[in-house]
From TrEMBL:
It comes from the Eukaryota. GO terms for molecular function: ATP binding; FAD-AMP lyase (cyclizing) activity; glycerone kinase activity; metal ion binding; triokinase activity. The active site is at H221. Homodimer. Interacts with IFIH1 (via the CARD domains), the interaction is inhibited by viral infection. Substrate binds at G56, S57, G58, H59, K109, D114. This is Triokinase/FMN cyclase. Pfam families: Dak1, Dak2. Its EC number is 2.7.1.28, 2.7.1.29, 4.6.1.15.
């Protein structure tokens, strides 16, 4: 089965993609009759060396994203994963020549089709008297034994675009640019890894992987890599990649060792989430620095993709100060990152946390809730939530991202860890305030914020008294805060429905001679009934409000969790005969 793609047609997708980039970027123009993009200020390049690159489409933002002052003059794009036509390459050379440039450098990735087509266009241009040179970039560090075809051209090619662009902008001649970037190209290496393949529009994925496998050392055209390894943590995968890239027995290795200074590129191959990309970047920085390698610059993003491939490549370029100045030189290319021009290694990455204000004395601290009793209550609540994790997640999958149980379990584990650190405060106000801070920090999501709001507000009426009327007032204050900031109301199919129902029953605590357990039992039963009633409600707030009510045939997970917490509190207190 072919994969789904948002295209107008398979045949026209490369043309449409390049046209879309040019349509949104006034600094670019298309060359009539060709799949070629050029700088729109081409006439200003008289007397400079022109830089042309390109290759198959499907590697966006490469190559057209790197057109601009200080980088490429233009690119020639082929169909997806297909070398561009010789006639279009020659037309691009002629176009830059006719505005008065003093020579053209072709920057080509080492693939047979690209070498042949760019090479043939070069020979035809030279036959017309146009000075043209060609640099073939092969930065692949996957192969341990030298292949006849040589190392493939990968994401490191972008760094060659940058260095050559800075030299051309500085007025350096064609021969010197060619020689200098040829040296730079030999001082770098790239290695890719992927969780799955990609698929060319109109086609099936190019290879299949088992659920516990990843592909190491693959190229950028969906071709398989040098070997398959077992799925592992990001730290482990990055360590394997760097070991492979820097192993001196590997003929295509990068000679990086302790004391080396490098530019690091962490490149998204197209389908990896930004979350994973950040994790990989962190692992790469720490692994390299752990080996004594100085990271002079770090580029993280999508620079040369392979359509929607969920993977990454790491590029290492050995640098000195003169080379860093070229990397740092200004460019208007839209896909080049706004990178800090300072060393990554040696920078302080953590700022000390602000000091917390001193806690004010609490008049209820002595004679307040017994700490041992509260530990038992909290432990019962935590056990209940951990036991409900899968059930709550299943309920949440109908209307959300399926993580309600995970979120509540995270809160439970945070509370368990906090209890191990020492006894909780005896004061109810301090206890609720501490729990509020803990959940705001550890629980996450809207649930963490809502529970935090509830507990913060509920703590205030308990500062002066801790009798039953004060606890009823605390419930009122918590519910008011949740409604004020959460914008939910009773009947909106949220956790508030359970808490509101319980709160109405707890009003009876304000009456003289009120019975703790009788009223609390009624409150818990009302909360459970309200949670079940959400099954038939139309969501008026929260993520579920965006879902058709016809699909919401289960009770709200937040309401179920809130009712379960109240039940756990009741049973824990009953068990102690409080």
């Amino acid at each position: 089965m072919t994969s789904k793609k948002l295209v107008n047609s398979v045949a026209g997708c490369a043309d449409d993609a390049l046209a879309g980039l040019v349509a949104c970027n006034p600094n670019l123009q298309l060359l009539q009759g060709h799949r070629v993009a050029l700088r729109s200020d081409l006439d200003s390049l008289k007397g400079q060396v022109a830089l042309l690159s390109g290759g198959g489409s499907g590697h966006e933002p490469a190559h057209a994203g790197f057109i601009g002052k200080g980088m490429l003059t233009g690119v020639i794009a082929g169909a997806v994963f297909t070398s561009p036509a010789v006639g279009s390459i020659l037309a691009a050379i002629r176009a830059v020549t006719q505005v008065g440039t003093v020579g053209t450098l072709l920057i080509v990735k080492n693939y047979t089709g690209d070498r042949l087509n760019f090479g043939l266009a070069r020979e035809q241009a030279r036959a017309e008297g146009i000075p043209v040179e060609m640099v073939v970039v092969g930065d692949d560090s996957a192969f341990t034994v030298l292949k006849k075809a040589g190392r493939r051209g990968l994401c490191g090619t972008v760094l060659i675009h940058k260095v050559a662009g800075a030299l051309a902008e500085a007025g350096v001649g064609l021969e010197e640019i060619t020689n200098r970037v040829s040296v730079v190209a030999k001082a770098m290496g790239t290695l890719g890894v992927s969780l799955a393949s990609c698929s060319v529009p109109g086609s099936k994925p190019t290879f299949e992987l088992s659920a516990d496998e990843v592909e190491l050392g693959l190229g950028i055209h969906g071709e398989a890599g040098v070997r398959r390894i077992k799925m592992a943590t990001a730290d482990k995968i990055v360590a394997i990649m760097l070991d492979h890239m820097t192993n001196s027995s590997n003929v295509s290795h990068v000679p990086v060792q302790s004391g080396s200074s490098v530019v690091l590129m962490v490149n998204n191959l197209g389908g990896l989430s930004f979350l994973e990309l950040g994790i990989i970047a962190d692992a790469a920085v720490h692994s390299l620095e752990g080996r004594g390698v100085k990271i002079a610059r770090a580029l993280v993003g999508t620079f040369m993709s392979a359509l929607e491939m969920p993977g990454i490549s790491l590029t290492l370029l050995l640098v000195d100060e003169p080379l860093l100045k070229l990397i740092d030189a200004d460019t208007t290319a839209s896909a080049w990152p706004n990178m800090a021009r300072v060393s990554v290694t040696g920078r302080t990455r953590i700022r000390a946390a602000p000091t917390e204000p001193l806690e004010a004395p609490d008049s209820t601290a002595t004679g307040g809730t017994d700490s041992k009793q509260m530990v038992l209550v909290l432990e019962r609540v935590c056990t209940t939530l951990l036991g409900l994790e899968e059930h709550l997640n299943a309920l949440d999958r109908a209307a959300g991202d399926g993580d309600c149980g995970t979120t509540h379990s995270r809160a439970a584990r945070a509370i368990q860890g906090w209890l191990k650190e020492g006894p909780p405060p005896a004061s109810p106000t301090q206890l609720l305030s501490k729990l509020s801070l803990l959940l705001l920090e550890k629980m996450g999501g809207s649930s963490g914020a809502l529970y935090g709001l509830f507990l913060t507000a509920a703590a205030q009426p308990l500062k002066a008294k801790t009798d039953l009327p004060a606890w009823s007032a605390a419930m009122d204050a918590g519910l008011e805060a949740m409604q004020k900031y959460g914008k939910a109301a009773p009947g909106d199919r949220t956790m508030l429905d359970s808490l509101w129902a319980a709160g109405q029953e707890l009003q009876a605590w304000k009456s003289p001679g009120a019975n703790l357990f009788q009223i609390l039992t009624k409150a818990v039963k009302s909360a459970e009934a309200a949670a079940e009633a959400t099954r038939n409600m139309e969501a008026g707030a929260g993520r579920a409000s965006y879902i058709s009510s016809a699909r919401l045939d289960q009770p709200d997970p937040g309401a179920v969790a809130a009712a379960a917490i109240l039940r756990a509190v009741l049973e824990a207190l009953q068990g102690q005969g409080a």
